[in-house]
């Protein structure tokens, strides 16, 4: 039955190729990078790879950021280990290239079509596929199993919504999980959802979230603090925002200005290619704005700094007093709030937190995070914290300590990967896994 369903799925994917390419072309209106390197998505035009290396799949920007410290640790232990990183988005690809350069190979993830994947695997010949968070593709996992490629899902998270989605195709999901060697889940809750979907219990390890282990970039923190000392004004950052959120943030900002007229808003959209759309929105509200890429000076009358560059979020967290983390005022599920919390900055999130429930519970438990429901409650939270500096500093420090206390998942995950990799040449992995657990 599974073979029939997977065959039907493959046929549908083949017929959907024009739609997939049309979608890339449409996304290219905002970000021209989507119209480039199409051959890679079909396993064409790949560079030469050394066989037997690690294939790491990080879907988009968030997964890529989480993958970078893991890759660096693996490279430190085995400098000559071939590493290939695949992504599905240009932002994820750019993050890998900017951080790791030529030390890894990088390409787009191939479409989940059998003949595409066979060509890709023939060119790459990996020993292990490491998937960040949750990204399950039936043909990919089936071919990896047949060709002896171990599959590990690390930093694995599975929201209730995602679990229900996979339950709609329970048979295919169960078969996919049978092709997975190991799942390293962020929490027991995530792990239980994988078990509900059919993962064997002996293939599950709870490691915690690697997001706690994202290193602080001291040079960026220093730059951010220097900017703040120059600006000498209250600063509120709205980070990783999506379409629909900037409107709500600007509505809140208008109310904040009535109470704190000297405040500066730093707006960091999740996708910088939306620059024109956001600039138009800001100008509709008649705010003085400077883009980061322009290099222009932030003057006292400047109300908004619009960040249209990648890889500098820590700079602007360090330059701010309070952070709103986006993807949470619209139904995206929320983005990583820990990058702000580790710098001792109180965090605000919206009602949509499916992707970061455990982080919200942790930080709100120590008072370092508040959840709001709309622009009115957002403005109220910002005003309260800006007018209560002692409370803001104390709760921000609580958040920083909570993040540091929960570090350690990265070391466990790297140990699991090396144990699995070593077992392929040396035999059973069971004893090594027990040491990591």
Write a brief structural summary.
The two termini are 36 Å apart. This protein has helices at 2-15, 17-27, 61-77, 90-100, 114-124, 138-146, 160-167, 170-178, 188-197, 218-231, 245-259, 275-284, 313-318, 338-341, 357-365, 375-386, 389-405, 409-426, 430-436, and strands at residues 54-57, 83-87, 105-108, 128-132, 150-156, 182-185, 204-206, 235-241, 264-269, 289-291, 304-306, 322-325, 347-349, 369-371. The chain folds into 2 domains: 32-208 and 408-436, 3-Layer(aba) Sandwich (Rossmann fold), CATH 3.40.50; 218-405, Glycogen Phosphorylase B (Rossmann fold, 3-Layer(aba) Sandwich), CATH 3.40.50.
Task: Write structural notes for this entry.
The chain has helices spanning 2-15, 17-27, 61-77, 90-100, 114-124, 138-146, 160-167, 170-178, 188-197, 218-231, 245-259, 275-284, 313-318, 338-341, 357-365, 375-386, 389-405, 409-426, 430-436, and strands at residues 54-57, 83-87, 105-108, 128-132, 150-156, 182-185, 204-206, 235-241, 264-269, 289-291, 304-306, 322-325, 347-349, 369-371. The relative contact order is 0.10. Helices cover 49% and strands 14% of the residues. It folds into 2 domains: 32-208 and 408-436, Rossmann fold (3-Layer(aba) Sandwich); 218-405, Glycogen Phosphorylase B (Rossmann fold), CATH 3.40.50.2000. It contains 19 helices and 14 strands. The protein is globular. The strands form 2 sheets. The chain has a 7-stranded parallel sheet, with helices on both faces. It has a 7-stranded parallel sheet with strand order 10-11-9-8-12-13-14. By secondary structure, the chain is an alpha/beta fold.
């Amino acid at each position: 039955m599974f073979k029939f369903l997977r065959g039907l799925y493959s046929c549908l994917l083949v017929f959907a190729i024009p739609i997939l390419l049309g979608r890339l072309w449409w996304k290219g209106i905002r970000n021209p990078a989507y119209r480039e390197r199409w051959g890679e998505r079909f396993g064409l035009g790949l560079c030469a790879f050394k066989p037997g290396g690690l294939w790491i799949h990080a879907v988009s920007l968030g997964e890529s950021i989480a993958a970078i410290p893991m890759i660096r640790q693996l490279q430190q232990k085995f400098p000559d280990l071939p590493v290939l990183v695949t992504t599905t988005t240009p932002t994820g690809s750019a993050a890998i290239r900017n951080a790791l350069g030529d030390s890894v190979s990088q390409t787009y993830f191939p479409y989940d079509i059998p003949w595409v994947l066979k060509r890709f695997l023939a060119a790459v010949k990996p020993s292990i596929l490491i998937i960040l968070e949750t990204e399950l593709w039936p043909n990919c996992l089936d071919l990896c199993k047949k060709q002896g490629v171990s599959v590990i899902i690390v930093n694995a998270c599975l929201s209730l919504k995602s679990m229900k989605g996979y339950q709609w195709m329970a048979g295919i999901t169960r078969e996919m999980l049978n092709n997975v060697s190991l799942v390293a889940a962020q929490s027991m809750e995530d792990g239980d959802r994988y078990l509900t979907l059919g993962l064997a219990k002996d293939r599950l390890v709870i490691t915690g979230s690697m997001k706690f282990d994202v290193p602080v970039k001291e040079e960026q923190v220093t730059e951010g603090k220097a900017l703040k000392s120059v600006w000498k004004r209250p600063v509120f950052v709205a980070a990783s925002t999506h379409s629909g959120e900037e409107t709500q943030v600007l509505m809140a900002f208008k109310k904040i200005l009535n109470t704190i007229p000297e405040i500066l808003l730093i707006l960091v959209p999740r996708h910088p290619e939306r620059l024109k759309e956001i600039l138009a929105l800001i100008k509709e509200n008649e705010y003085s704005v400077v883009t980061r890429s322009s290099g222009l000076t932030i003057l006292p009358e400047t109300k908004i700094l619009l960040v249209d560059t990648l890889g500098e979020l820590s700079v602007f967290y360090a330059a701010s007093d309070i952070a709103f983390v986006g993807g949470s005022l619209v139904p995206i599920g929320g983005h990583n709030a820990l990058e702000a919390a580790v710098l001792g900055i109180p965090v605000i999130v919206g009602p949509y937190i499916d992707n970061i429930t455990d982080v919200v519970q942790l930080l709100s438990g120590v008072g370092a995070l508040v959840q709001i429901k709309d622009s009115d409650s957002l403005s109220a939270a910002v005003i309260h914290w800006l007018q209560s500096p002692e409370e803001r500093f104390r709760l921000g420090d609580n958040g920083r300590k909570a993040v540091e206390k929960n570090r350690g998942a990265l070391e466990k995950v790297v140990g699991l990967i090396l144990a699995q990799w070593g077992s392929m040449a040396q035999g059973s992995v069971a004893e090594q896994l027990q040491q990591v657990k």
